[in-house]
Specification:
homodimer; alpha+beta; Arc Repressor Mutant, subunit A; two-stranded antiparallel sheet; 5 helices; 4 strands; elongated
Chain lengths: 115, 115
C-alpha cells in the first residue's frame, strides 16, 4: 500500500487534504510561495488560490508574507499554520496505523500491490 | 464538518474510496448494476469500469452477476464484497471519531463551516 489520501470536507469547495498540507510544509521549508509551488510543479497562481482557500477556512492566517527586498518577498508559517500541519500528519499516521492493524480485508489486495 | 473523504491508495490508479464503496452499497441494496449506477447519476460504463478496477485490486470477486430472465441480469455482492463495505465504513467511523476527539485544530474552522 502506498498510503492514505485523507481529506477533511467542510463544504463543497472547502477541504483540507494532502495537497494543501504539502504546500504548507514546503513553504515552511523554503520560506517562499514561489519555490514551494515550483517544488510541486504547480503555478504560482494555483498555489495562491489554494492558500487563499485555506485562509478562508481557518479563523486566523496560516501563513505570513514578508515584504522582501529585491523581487518577491518570502513567506513563513504562523504558529497556527505549523499546528495544522502537525495535527494533520499525526491524524494521518493514526488512521494509517488503525487501518493496517484493524481492517485487514482492506489491505489484503493482489500481491504486487501490497507494498 | 461534512465528513472525511478517505482513499486507500495502492498504486497510481488503484484506490478504494467513497465512490467505489458507495457503488457497492447500492448494488447490494438494488441488486442491479444499472440501478446502482443510475442512483449515482453515473453511466453504466463508468460503473462497470469502477467495478472492474475493484475486481483487479482484490484477490477474489466482490460482486457476482446473476444471469437474468428478461433483459439484463442482476448482481449481488459476495461475502468478500460485503466485508469490504463493512470494514471501510468502520474504518471511516474510527478516523472520524479520532479526528473530532484528538485533533481540535483541524476542525476549528470558520463558524459557518462547522456543521
Amino acid at each position: 500500500m502506498q498510503g492514505l489520501h485523507i481529506e477533511i470536507v467542510f463544504g463543497k469547495d472547502e477541504r483540507i487534504g494532502p495537497g494543501k498540507v504539502r504546500l504548507l510544509e514546503l513553504i515552511a521549508e523554503k520560506g517562499s510561495i514561489t519555490e514551494a509551488a515550483q517544488a510541486m510543479s504547480m503555478s504560482y497562481r494555483k498555489a495562491w488560490l489554494l492558500l487563499d482557500a485555506i485562509d478562508k477556512l481557518f479563523p486566523a492566517p496560516l501563513i505570513e508574507k514578508r515584504v522582501g527586498g529585491h523581487g518577491k518577498g518570502g513567506a513563513t508559517l504562523t504558529p497556527l499554520g505549523r499546528e495544522v500541519i502537525r495535527q494533520y500528519r499525526a491524524f494521518e499516521g493514526k488512521c494509517q496505523k488503525a487501518l493496517t492493524s484493524d481492517y485487514p480485508v482492506l489491505t489484503d489486495v493482489q500481491p504486487d500491490l501490497r507494498d
